[in-house]
Design goal:
The complex is a heterodimer of chains A (about 325) and B (about 500).
Chain A lengths: L1 H25 L15 E5 L6 H17 L3 E5 L9 H6 L6 E6 L1 H7 L11 E10 L1 E6 L8 H10 L5 E5 L5 H13 L4 E5 L2 H9 L5 E4 L5 H5 L3 E7 L25 E8 L4 H16 L1 H9 L11 H22 L2
Parallel strand pairs in A: 1-2, 1-3, 6-7, 6-8
Antiparallel strand pairs in A: 3-10, 4-10, 5-8, 5-9
Helix pairs in contact in A: 2-9, 4-11
Chain B lengths: L6 H19 L5 H8 L8 H26 L8 H12 L3 H37 L2 H15 L7 H15 L2 E2 L6 E2 L2 E4 L2 E4 L1 H4 L4 H22 L15 H6 L1 H16 L4 H16 L11 H17 L1 H7 L5 H12 L8 H4 L1 H28 L8 H20 L3 H18 L4 H24 L11 H32 L1
Antiparallel strand pairs in B: 1-2, 3-4
The chains are: A alpha/beta (about 325), B mainly alpha (about 500).
């Protein structure tokens, strides 16, 4: 009996040692966990509903960071107001690094036009961006009035103000700013139809209620794979491999740096330096996690560099704020 | 396809069925609460198990909401609200078993009918719906729905319309659907200026429902106890007879058709289906005068329609990748978490999973009949619990349910304010259900209206260039005209009686 117990104890000790080794191996490259941090689960606030793009990203990244850094996360959705309703709860939480906010570039444009007061690059610390993507213009695959970008431009110029585009039309949104820049450059007059729910736009295009759609490839992948939609223009300086047959806006004669869509993770400013560093390193490790990489690949996030560290994120945000402000002045917003 | 091949699947199925029913049938929380709680756990499940679980919760939850509507006058979800109108009076008459029996059987029949229709033609129906129904038609349908259902649950037509209008007004709080401009989120009141990000999130219908029905019901019962007029409803165990079902066969068929049709249009869903089903049953019934006083046909109409709609709501989700409501949006997330995109390709890439959904919903609906029969013998005994014990439980669960919705504290405040407002509404003959209908359809309607206006260059006449939209709008106006004429006739009759 005693012998058996001994054996059990031994194997238990071995298991503990093994798991200690494993966790050591996992945290290779991570700075030491700040004393007293991460012993209880962290809260990750998602300002959009369960099941959506942001929610999927937050859960995938939470899982990756759990595996890589041994942190535990509780994902909490606080949807409403286009991502603004979650902000007060985030701002009320103590600046101890235990509350992480997932947010998208909407927060930046909302700050630029005064809808929110918090500057995402100053009042918050961006730990990392882990999804950065470009936009495209899509048509129905069986559209016969125009089948490529050149034909579309010709059609749109012959019918000024008649061609309809489905958009997420928040005043000053990335979509509207980019389309304004394109229309200015090419002399296009496209009627923008503002939708409030992202998925409704896909039905509107496929059902023939609008003519074209502005969207990111990862969000309409199923429709592309099913051969129901096809891209006719890419908003990027060079053609990505996956869309080698689609011209870019630069090629079409528009000379501007197109805004990107980006999703990342924030803590409040004022969180102790060592905790910020640790969380940023955990995020970087999570981004390299094989399962997370696969998740990003499925969303077409591997076509351009989808990762930014703290400095890179601040640069990205400040650049976007500058572009938005300049465009708002021009648009009179 | 091997739905019940292993004990694991069977266990998840059973848990989903019981969980959906319990959450649906508990005043205060609902299947959305359960969905949000179990969502994180589905990540590690097999995809077919995760999808089955949500399909089952979905079916069972809508049915469960009818039970509290009937026993306590507290609908579990907005689509159960019309069930209160006749279900609760039946309970007061001691016919709770009959009402629940009718609700159960009709839920299952509505659900089964829509699952069978769904199995036969998901792709074709979804393709047709998406082409035939643009924003203009959706708006026209919502207008028609409001026009025919506005007076439901109110003492007079005018009070019904005022209730709906109040709901429409509340729907405008929050971010506008076109420009994303926040409305009513800052301003000054009595010299104090305020600014609230919470208000830019808008007023959600769930806390309003909890307030109007659960909280105000507690107030109303407490008041009755205080002044000594409360009659304790008797638990009835009788199940409706076959003859009673046969009598309402046309109502059932009509509600299946209405529910199925409303369900396949993304975003319209079960609430409009239930109200339309009820109002049409009232319109065509021989027992029109008994509606609202405990007519079993009313329970049948609303429960058949809302369950038919929930089944049909899977069609746009699966075939087009367009979720119509909160729970279908969560299901969409589950598909995506497991690497599948709902949409036309799903039948090719993950055809077996689609059949898991169909089969799970089919069996869930079938089992609901059996479980429901058991429930008519068991849950009605809840009525025997003294109200002073029940009330704190209801209030506590309502608070949890309101907060759990979006994890925003504003929803708890909204619930209590709605509770007080709901109590006053009831006493004055206005319709709490009408306010909720206005709130839900106001949001959907505004969204469809603004898109229509942009597409039609802001010309109202554009609606009349599209035959379906034109017909629905004209029918809506006709319904308003008829109901006004009917109201005057009713008033004259009452006067004649008094003379």
């Amino acid at each position: 009996m005693e012998h058996k117990l001994n054996e059990v104890m031994k194997s238990a000790a071995a298991a503990v040692a093994l798991s200690a080794c494993a966790s050591l191996a996992q945290s290779e490259g991570l700075p030491a966990k700040p004393a007293g941090f991460g012993d209880r689960p962290l809260t990750m606030i998602v300002p959009f509903g369960p099941g959506g793009g942001s929610d999927q990203l937050a859960r995938a990244m939470a899982k990756a960071m759990e595996e890589e850094a041994g942190l535990a996360f509780q994902v909490v959705n606080k949807p409403g107001g286009g991502g603004t309703a979650a902000i007060p709860d985030f701002m009320l939480a103590p600046a101890d690094g235990y509350t992480v906010l997932e947010h998208i570039d909407n927060a930046v444009s909302a700050y630029a036009n005064g809808d929110i007061r918090e500057n995402p690059a100053v009042d918050w610390v961006p730990l990392c961006m882990t999804q950065i993507t470009f936009s495209q213009i899509y048509i129905r695959a069986d559209e016969d009035r125009f089948t490529d970008w050149a034909a579309f431009v010709e059609f749109a110029k012959a019918n000024p103000g008649e061609v309809t585009m489905a958009n997420l039309g928040r005043v000053g949104s990335m979509e509207l700013v980019v389309m304004h820049q394109l229309s200015e450059a090419l002399g296009l007059d496209v009627k923008q139809i503002a939708f409030d729910k992202p998925a409704e736009r896909y039905g509107a295009l496929i059902g023939g209620h609008v003519d074209v759609l502005f969207e990111q490839p990862g969000d309409v992948r199923s429709f592309l794979d099913a051969g129901q939609m096809k891209p006719i223009l890419t908003f990027l300086n060079d053609r990505p491999d996956a869309f080698a047959g689609v011209p870019t806006h630069r090629e079409s004669g528009a000379d501007f740096e197109a805004l990107t869509r980006f999703r990342g993770f924030y803590v409040k400013s004022g969180v102790p330096e060592d905790r910020v560093e640790y969380l940023a390193a955990a995020c970087a490790a999570g981004f390299e996690n094989a399962e997370y990489a696969e998740f990003n690949r499925k969303k077409y996030m591997h076509l351009i560099d989808s990762y930014r560290d703290i400095e890179g994120s601040i640069e990205l945000i400040n650049g976007a704020v500058e572009t938005y402000r300049a465009m708002y002045e021009q648009l009179g917003i | 396809m091997n739905l019940f091949g292993d004990w694991h699947a069977l266990l998840i199925f059973t848990m989903g069925l019981l969980g959906g029913m319990i959450f649906g049938a508990t005043p205060g929380v609902n299947m959305l609460t359960l969905g949000a709680v179990v969502l994180p756990f589905t990540v590690t499940m097999l995809p077919e198990h995760a999808i089955m679980l949500f399909s089952v919760i979905y079916c069972a939850g809508v049915f469960g909401g009818a039970i509290t509507a009937i026993l306590f006058n507290i609908p579990g979800a907005p689509e159960n609200a019309p069930t209160c109108f006749d279900g609760y009076p039946m309970t007061l008459r001691g016919e709770s078993g009959k009402a629940i029996g009718a609700a159960v059987s009709c839920s299952a029949i509505g659900g089964l009918a829509s699952v069978i229709l769904m199995m036969s033609a998901t792709g074709a129906i979804a393709g047709w719906a998406i082409r035939a129904f643009g924003p203009q038609e959706i708006f026209a349908l919502i207008f028609f729905g409001l026009a025919v259902s506005a007076s439901i649950g109110a003492r007079t037509l005018w009070k019904g319309w005022l209730s709906v209008m109040a709901g429409l007004l509340i729907a405008t709080i929050g971010t506008d659907p076109v420009g994303g401009i926040p409305r009513f989120n800052e301003g000054s009141l009595l010299g104090l200026s305020f600014h609230s990000y919470y208000l830019s999130a808008g007023i959600h219908f769930i806390p309003i429902i909890l307030g109007f029905f659960a909280v105000s019901e507690v107030f109303a019962q407490a008041m009755n106890i205080a002044i000594g007029t409360r009659e304790r409803p008797q638990a009835g165990l009788e199940f409706p007879s076959a003859a009673e079902f046969w009598r309402v066969r046309w109502t059932m068929l009509r509600s299946v058709a209405i529910g199925f049709f409303a369900g396949i249009l993304p975003g319209i869903g079960a609430t409009l289906a239930a109200f339309l089903g009820y109002s049409q049953a009232q319109r065509w019934s021989r027992n029109r005068k008994n509606f609202g006083k405990g007519e079993i046909e009313g329970v049948v109409a609303s429960e058949t329609a809302n369950n038919a709609a929930t089944g049909a709501a899977m069609i746009p989700l699966l075939a087009l990748g367009l979720p119509g409501g909160a729970l279908t949006a969560m299901m969409m997330g589950i598909f995506q978490i497991h690497g599948m995109e709902p949409g036309p390709l799903i039948f090719i890439n993950s055809g077996d999973l689609v059949w898991v959904t169909f089969a799970a919903m089919f069996w869930a609906n079938l089992l609901i009949i059996f479980l429901g029969w058991l429930q008519t013998k068991t849950v009605v005994h809840l009525l025997r619990i003294p109200f002073r014990w029940l009330a704190p439980g209801i209030l506590m669960l309502a608070i949890v349910g309101a907060y759990a919705l979006r994890n925003l504290f504003i929803d708890v405040w909204v619930m209590f304010i709605a509770g007080i407002a709901g109590y006053l509404l009831r006493r004055t003959g206005y319709s709490a259900a009408g306010v909720v209908l206005g709130l839900i359809l106001g949001k959907l309607g505004e969204s469809a209206f603004t898109k229509s206006m942009q597409l039609m260059d802001y010309s109202f006449l554009g609606f009349f260039e599209r035959p379906v939209a034109a017909a629905l709008i004209l029918l809506g106006f006709a319904a308003i005209g008829l109901s006004i004429a009917g109201e005057f006739r009713r008033r004259d009759e009452q006067r004649a009686l008094l003379d």
